[in-house]
From TrEMBL:
InterPro entries: AN11006-like. This is F-box domain-containing protein.
Amino acid sequence: MFSKLRIGSKKRVDSSSHPNGANFLSLPAELRNNIYECVLEDTATLTMVPRKAFIKPKPPAMLLVSRQVRAEYQPILLTRARIVANVYNYDFRDISSVVSSLYPTQLKLLRLNNTLVIKLHCLRCRPQDLDLLRRWLVKRADPLDRLSWSYEVGWSRITVALSAKPDMLVGHLEMLNDMKTRSRLDERVAWEMLPIQDCIRQELETVQQELANSALQT
């Protein structure tokens, strides 16, 4: 999705005008902004994918209409849309790569967005995975990296039985606690781990409640 935001010099067909002469860009700016807001409400979630991804989601149509429409809509999109980045086994390198490829103006807009979400797909947790996590935490501890990421647990790549999820989540919490203790993480780095631990605990509580509800129904 973000690769589409960097198109600059390529020629485009201006599709913002209608064959009968009506022109979207001739509308008052306030009305155009209202239309952009309505379009954004229908854009539930944008998925951040690396440039090398084999399958990429289609970019929002408004970004492809014309240069002017893209210039007007992009700030609203980047500051207001829910943007999700999928992370598997604590490998945050794709996120770092995508973010580092953005223009300063785009980063400035993203810093105003409070709905940036990292979905953690906790399929395994090996020593090399924890090393990747440590690199991410060190990067997050840098005061220059201030995108407001929040964390959620995701299960989309594999089917995991509900009864198996608690043990998986508990295992990850134990390994994260062990990593914090043995590695003697810097205080700022350890602080950046807390949101990850909290999201796993919340998912564990949700799963345990689902199991309890399921037991009551049987």
